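quick one before i forget lol
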Amino acid sequence: MFRSASRNVDWFGLMVMVMVMVFLSLLDCVCGSLDEDSCDEVKTAYMMRQIGPVELVPHTPVADESLKVCVHPGPTCCTGKMEDSYMAAVRSEMQQKMRSFSFELKYLISGNSKAYQETFQSLVSFTSNLTSTLFDSAYSALANDCRPLVHQLFSDIKRYLSGDADASLEAAVRHFYNNLFPLVYHRLLNPGFGHITTQSVPLVSTNHDDCLRMTRQDVVPFGPHPRLLASSLARALGPGRALSRLLRLAGEVVNTTEKTSLSRECGRGLVRMQYCSHCRGFTLVRPCTGLCINIMRGCLVSVSELAAPWGSLVVLLQRLAATLATSSNHNSMELALLAIRNHVNDAILYAQLHGPRITATVEKVCGPLVAPPILTTSTARPSATSPPPAVPAAQAQQSLQLQSR
C-alpha cells in the first residue's frame, strides 16, 4: 500500500503546497479599508510586524519614484527604503517558518537515528566480545592473534550497518578468514611446525603466510562456512543498513531545505504577494491562492536539485517497507550477529576434520613445513638443513590452478 501510494504522489507539487500554507499562515484573513489621507494603519502594521524603523513610513501617502516592486499609480504609503525592509523581512520569515515546520520532522529523524545507532553498536560490541571468548575457551593457541581479527570483522560490520558506501560484508568475511587460515594451519593443523620464535625471529617466512592467504579460497580449508556466514549476514543486516541510509538521507534533505536561500526574484515576488497591498493602505488583505502558488513555484525552482535525493528517499522507503512487511523474524539481525560465533567454530572444526587433505594441498602449492631445529643457546648457528624457501604467492596460485586441471 505504501508503494502504490508513494508512486502517485507529486512530491514537487506537495512541496509547493506546503510552502503556500507557510506563507498563508503569516497573513490575516480580514480585509482592511483605504484611508487616502493617512498612513497610520500602514505604520501600525509596519511596527507590529517589526519590519524596520517606523520612521521610514510616511505620515500621508506620497509619490515615490524610487519604488521598484510595489509600483502602482497614485500616492503610496511605501518608500524605496521600506521595500528593502520588506525584502529582508520576507527572507527572515521564510527561514523562520521553514525551520519551524521542519523542526518536528528533523527531531524525529535525528532521534530515531541516534537510538538505532546506539542499539546496533551495543549489539555489535556484545557479539564481538562473545566471539572472542570462543578462542579464549576453545582455541587458546589462537586467542591472542585472533582477537584483532575479530575486532576488525565486527568493525567492518558496524560500518556496514551505519550505511557506509564503501563497506562490504563479503569483503569483511573474506578478509577475516584469509587471515585466520595461517593461524589455524600452523597452530592447530601442524603444531610445532613454524611460528615458534627464538629471540622474536619467526622460523617460518611471512611469504608462506602470504601464500596461505592468497590460496585460501582455492584450498577451501573452512568448507562452506565462510560463504554461509556472508550470506546470512547480508540477509539479516540488509534492512538495518537500508534504515541507516534512509535516516541519513532524510536528514540531509531536511538540512538542505532549511539552508536554501531565496533568489532576488523570489524575494520580490513574496514582497508583492505579502506587503505591496500595505502601500495602498490594505494591511489585512489576504492574497489569492493562485498568486501564492505561482510565486512559490518560481521560488522553488532554486531547490529543484532536491528532486534526486527526495526520489532516492522515496525508493529507500519503498524497499524498507517491503522488506519489513515480509520479514517473519523481527530479531533476525540480533540472531545473525549472535550466530557468528557458531559459524567461526564450525569453520575451524571443519579445518581440523580435513587437516590431512588441507596440509597435503598446501605443501604442494606453498611448500612443506619443517620442524624447527633445537637451539642450545641464544647465539647458536642455524641448522645446516634449513627449511626450504616458501613459494611466492603468485607462483603458488599458478601451481594450484594447474593441479585443479
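fyi The chain has one domain: 2-364+388-404.
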